[in-house]
Amino acid sequence: MPQPAQSERIFPDGFLWGTATAPTQVEGHLNDDWASFTAIDGEKPGRACEHFDRFEEDLPFILVMNNNAYRFGLSWARLQPGPRQPLDPKAVRRYREIITLLRRAGVEPMVTLHHFANPLWLPRDTRRDWDAFPPLFEDFVTRCAREFGDLVTFWIPFNEPVGWVVTSRITGHFVPCKKNQFGEARRVLIRLADAHRLAYRALHEHCATTPKVGVAKNYKLFRAYYPWSLPDAALAAFVHRIFNLRCADMFFERGGERVLDWLGANYYDRLQVRFFKALTPLTGVSRERLEELGVECDDMWDQCPEGMTEILNTVGKRYRLPIYVTEWGTSVSDDALRVKYLKSHLKAVADSIAQGTDVRGFFYWTLIDNYEWSLGYTKKFGLVGIDRTNPDLPRTMRPSGELYGRIAESGNVP
Ligand code: BGC
């Protein structure tokens, strides 16, 4: 295929093209606090995709897609057998092997250290437990910095800290499945921000190479359902200020100290609010129901590519830091729809760059169909499909994955 002229590239040279995964969702045979959780389809994470053991089989998909980066997690539960204990040497060896394979193939590893899951030994119910959390996490991060700091530059101590306290303490559909615990949600978020600060310092102190530390913050575009309705508009503006801005600020600066080198933005959807109700419920809604509500949607959410541009521009101006889109993806049964949304969202990222925002990478969620938390194996986000009816869990590249490869190669969206 002829290479497009440089001037045709709408993404800059050096742009990171990748996909993203998380340990609980892909690794398999993991003993974290999701191990005994049962999703709506009756499934536990269980074997997941056996990605930890079959990484050599999955790496070629990353390479065929011309990706120069891959975002994945190191599982705290797999690595550390107890509080303040040395990391498990077997797990360290395997993760180093995975990272080395990536590096040798010219793929930049971006490593998440906490993605919605905790080790079973971690006490996490009372106020005192949460007060004890930051130093325990710091200990884990320090050990990771020493073990992997020569191989990893991009670190994400926390994935979606704000989203996680909401789903685990308010809506209750994520482990530990508590509902309407607003006070606890606030306390946990504060401790996560404290832990982030300690992690930031630990990484900068103990990595053998200079680390770049970010946070993967989830953003939503909040909109009034009726633009003329003052209460709806006021509510949308209020939730935007709290969820998108104020809560994220805690991971940018803590106690007067700058604790972020770059910002990770996870953006998926628009949430329209009406009469103090979300018009499009938060998650797990059937496509039919969303269509009834009259929104352009995938199997989960209201699709709004322009929201990507707006959010990136807003946070770009607010923090003046390099931004990586650490997640965007879509769950659909019809891959043609994924192709459509992939193009529209990448064009939205390109628009933001053209408008002056410093966006330096894009990570599609997700590499391979995996365990979608409370929705189990019912959702298909992967550029690579997995056949769960076959005990061998065979993988197949989808046309959307082939398209993503062409985009990454050309730096352009057809
Ligand atoms: C999370 C992923 C999740 C994806 C799709 C993100 O908020 O980080 O773990 O699978 O959304 O729901």
Fold and architecture overview:
With 414 residues, the protein is of the alpha/beta class. It has one domain (6-410): Alpha-Beta Barrel (TIM Barrel). The chain is 39% helix and 17% strand. The chain is built from twelve helices and 13 strands. It has helices at 23-26, 55-64, 76-79, 89-104, 127-148, 161-169, 182-206, 230-249, 287-292, 305-319, 335-354, 399-410, and strands at 16-20, 69-73, 108-112, 154-156, 212-224, 253-254, 257-258, 262-274, 277-278, 323-328, 359-365, 384-386, 395-397. Strands 1, 2, 3, 4, 5, 8, 9, 10 and 11 form a nine-stranded mixed β-sheet that branches. Helix 5 (127-148) runs parallel beside helix 7. It is globular and about 55 Å long. The two termini are 14 Å apart. Mean pLDDT is 94; it is low at 1-7. The structure holds beta-D-glucopyranose (BGC).
